[in-house]
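[job 0412] stage=complex_fold ligand=adenosine-5'-triphosphate status=START
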Amino acid sequence: MGALHRKRIADWLLTAPTEQEIEVAGWVRTKRGNKEIAFIALSDGSTINNLQIVAELSKFDEELVKKIQTGASIRAKGKLVSSQGSGQAVEMVAESIELLGEADAETYPLQKKKHTLEFLREIAHLRPRTNTFGAILRIRHSLAFAIHKYFNDHHFYNIHAPIITGSDAEGAGEMFRVSTIDPANPPRKEDGTVDYSQDFFGKESNLTVSGQLEAELAAMALSRVYTFGPTFRAENSNTARHLAEFWMIEPEMAFFELDDNMDLAEDFLKYLIRYAIEHHADDLAFLEKRLLDEETLLPKESRNPLPLTEKLKFVTENPFERITYTEAIAVLEKSGKKFEFPVKWGIDLQSEHERYLVEKHFKKPVILTNYPKDIKAFYMKQDEDGKTVRAMDVLFPGIGEIIGGSQREESYEKLSKRIHEMNIHEESLWWYLDTRKFGTVPHSGFGLGFERLVLFVTGMGNIRDVIPFPRTPKNLEF
Ligand code: ATP
Ligand code: MN
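[job 0412] stage=complex_fold status=DONE, emitting structure tokens
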């Protein structure tokens, strides 16, 4: 049988053992045993569980057996039998083993002992071979798949927003320049500044910080659309929640108002978490145990109140709290807690405030709405009071902001006035403003940071550990 239709270890582990001849290939996790027999734990990445291969040493070449070590790759043929040992239902009795690639025990960095996550970041090219990263990568894949499935099932069209952008007005943070100008000898204007009219696009260009504005254009024709693409932010924030390159999901819906937007965000997040629970019980059980082991070293108050899978179920089974920014400020003021950043109406909420609301006060996800207009983007719909806008941020325990969104301002006059107030270069946004001139409609959307979702579902603590090759300040090795 060709490789395409060959069964994987995940499949064999669920197959009734009738002593049928099978063939598997993968990487050796461990080898143990005695002079007569070797037990090889083999992984092909299809599941967190290994297939145990039992090899009677008298049947195999001594040199070959020596080379079957942690990290080596092999192909094995044999019979699938029910397992004598505990821990697995089936195992393979090997009849032939082919060594595909050796792994020198002296230099292979992934030995049996536990490695720190920091060390594994330094060997990001090999860390997919660990149990932890295998589980994370499988869950990450399923969440990406579930995102497309959810939107397809709810009649959203996927829009590929551009990655290179010429608009400097998105206002979502620092941008990375895209240029073909020779940095050692750039063309200059008379005043000495760099002349970008001679650059590749004839103007300044950057990597996108959001696909929202383009998604809005498409929503004005297709009603429900979403983007799911890479976004880039040159913010120098070296936190456990920020990457310079991350993936963002941005639905944009015509005829959706703020409440509809919140309904979508809540239903969508619950669906995705449920999807992970249903499809990754083994991976989540592994990650949960890993987390519990790690937390035994921490003082009680720094541990998670619930084990990982219970936390995930809790979020899917309970309604999110929905309150306005103004109500949240009142809760914070009444808390009597001394915050590092003092609380007062108008402040941008810091993570200590968000965490207090989510983890201490409401003890569940919170959707905060109607923020002061001065701390939010120009495109958000203005409330009647003239002070707030129809923003909504979804805050999650342990994560803080996972979604940022809003109902959009659909009035040309109000939007254009706000653009002037905020000193944004209106001419560069003529195409965006056109949507408000021609058949404008109420509409809404949000941005979900994909890695923040994966962080929440896997229970990991650092965003660098939920993307295969993280890009952060001073870090671009792999
Ligand atoms: P934060 O306040 O956490 O920096 P933000 O307000 O800049 O986030 P938005 O511009 O609203 O974020 O982006 C939408 C979503 O994208 C956020 O809710 C978050 O999930 C995610 N996100 C934003 N910046 C980053 C980043 N640097 N790395 C990873 N995810 C991010
Ligand atoms: Mn935000």
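The mean pLDDT is 96.
[job 0412] exit 0
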